[in-house]
Structure formats: structure tokens, C-alpha cells
């Protein structure tokens, strides 16, 4: 029989080659199935979780985000972790409570949408509420929760190298109907609000330019009467119903299909 260290040597070398190839930081403790991710057991709100993942990537000159559908590859290893945010969401509106039609906040996957039923991913009773538009892992299964009521840990996933951190020069397409045409721009209640950055600018073009220069920006809402620009960060979403009475003028919305 060959010594154990001889048998393990090729396996260890392959792991090291994989980690080196994908530039996976040593602190990222989930390195399997082509995933490089880290579990943060710090209880925060959804937008703070997104911010910490983004800033962690900047420390390593990487692009990182809350984990998306790659969670299907490792959720079986997460049965004992406390509630943990993912970027799987319906913050652009929930026409039903089925498992179809969920988006992710992963750069490069702006057009990705789940087709269901994903029985191995969801808890058998989930999703079950029309106003629960974000998700957490609990007991090794996915649960829908509302943004206002949930604080949790989170999984950050490496999704790009340093080149992906650069804002490309030149023109960029913005779409008023991506990834779908919205019947309303407003959340129906105060249970969700997205992650927003609000500024005042004179024109829609200025608003779009600010978004293009902001790597976190997914889409914009602009009101020409009150000159208000709302940048939607990390995960594309509707806006709070509190914006509805600010002006009788109509808000316009444009998203970044190539985000």
C-alpha cells in the first residue's frame, strides 16, 4: 500500500492549483465546485451585507457580491449555519409566491431569472408570502423574508478579477424595459425598500452618468420636476412608496442590461 501522503499529494496539488487559478483569498472558506466564497457570521441588514461583500472584494482587488444561484452547489453544507443572506430576490415585484421568477444580485447575471421549481433549494413550505422579496438560508434550505424584518449573516462570493472593477469608457446601453416592463415603480408596502443612493442632478443624462461611474449601480429612477436621481445599488428593485407623493410628475426608470 502506498503511504497516505503519496496518495493525497495529487489531490492537494489540484486544490492548490484551483485556488491559485481563481485567485481565491485565503480567508474565503468555501472552495468547492468552482466556488470561492466566505461565510460572515455577523448579523446585519440586507444592504449592509451587500456593502460589506463589495468592500471585501475591493480589499483583494476582486469583485465580490452576495452569493446567487451558486448557493445550490453548497447549500447542503450549510444546514447548521444561522440565517444567511443570499442575493436571490424579487425586489422588482412579486406577481406570485411561486419559485419561478427570482433574480440574483451577481455581476454579469443581470438577466438571470429562475425557472423553478428548485425543490432541492427551497424549504418545502417556501416561498409563502407575496411581500417577502429577499432570501436567507436557514436549516440548509432557502426561505423568503421581507427586507425590513430580517437581520442575518451572509455569504460573499468572488465573481470577477481586478479588470472587472474598471468602469469601461464609451457608451453604455440603458433600458427602460429591462429586465421586464414594470406596471408600477413602487413597493406596495413598507416591508422592502431596496438599496438606494439619492442625489440631486439637473438632467436624466447626469443621473445615468453617475450610475455608469458607480460600479454598484444597477438602475436609476429620475424625476425631472424635483431633479432627483435615485441610484439602485447591488440588486435591481422598485422604490419606496414614500417617493410617490413627492411630485405629480412621472418618474422614469432605466436599468443597465450589461451590469
Automatic annotation (TrEMBL):
Domain of life where this protein originates: Eukaryota
Pfam families in UniProt: PAN_1 (PF00024)
Residues annotated as transmembrane: none
Signal sequence extent: 1-21
Keyword set, alphabetical order: Signal
Residue ranges of every copy of the Apple domain listed in the record: 197-232
InterPro entries: Pan_app (IPR003609)
The protein, known as: Apple domain-containing protein
Amino acid at each position: 500500500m502506498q503511504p497516505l501522503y503519496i496518495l493525497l499529494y495529487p489531490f492537494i496539488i489540484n486544490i492548490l492549483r484551483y485556488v491559485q487559478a481563481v485567485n481565491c483569498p485565503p480567508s474565503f472558506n468555501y472552495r468547492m465546485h468552482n466556488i470561492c466564497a466566505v461565510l460572515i457570521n455577523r448579523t446585519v441588514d440586507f444592504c449592509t451585507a451587500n456593502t460589506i461583500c463589495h468592500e471585501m472584494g475591493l480589499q483583494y482587488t476582486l469583485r465580490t457580491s452576495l452569493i446567487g444561484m451558486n448557493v445550490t452547489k453548497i447549500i447542503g453544507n450549510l444546514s447548521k449555519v444561522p440565517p444567511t443572506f443570499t442575493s436571490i430576490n424579487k425586489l422588482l415585484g412579486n406577481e406570485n409566491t411561486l419559485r419561478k421568477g427570482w433574480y440574483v444580485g451577481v455581476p454579469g447575471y443581470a438577466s438571470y431569472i429562475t425557472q423553478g421549481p428548485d425543490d432541492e433549494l427551497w424549504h418545502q413550505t417556501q416561498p409563502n408570502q407575496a411581500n417577502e422579496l429577499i432570501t436567507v438560508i436557514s436549516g440548509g434550505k432557502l426561505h423568503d423574508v421581507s427586507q425590513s424584518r430580517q437581520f442575518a449573516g451572509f455569504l460573499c462570493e468572488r465573481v470577477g478579477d481586478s479588470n472587472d472593477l474598471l468602469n469601461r469608457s464609451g457608451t453604455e446601453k440603458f433600458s427602460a424595459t429591462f429586465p421586464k416592463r414594470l406596471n408600477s415603480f413602487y413597493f406596495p408596502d413598507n416591508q422592502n425598500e431596496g438599496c438606494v443612493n439619492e442625489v440631486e442632478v439637473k438632467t436624466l443624462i447626469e443621473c445615468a452618468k453617475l450610475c455608469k461611474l458607480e460600479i454598484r449601480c444597477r438602475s436609476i429612477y429620475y424625476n425631472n420636476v424635483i431633479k432627483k436621481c435615485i441610484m439602485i445599488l447591488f440588486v435591481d428593485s422598485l422604490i419606496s412608496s414614500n417617493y410617490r407623493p413627492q411630485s405629480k410628475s412621472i418618474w422614469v426608470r432605466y436599468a443597465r442590461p450589461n451590469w
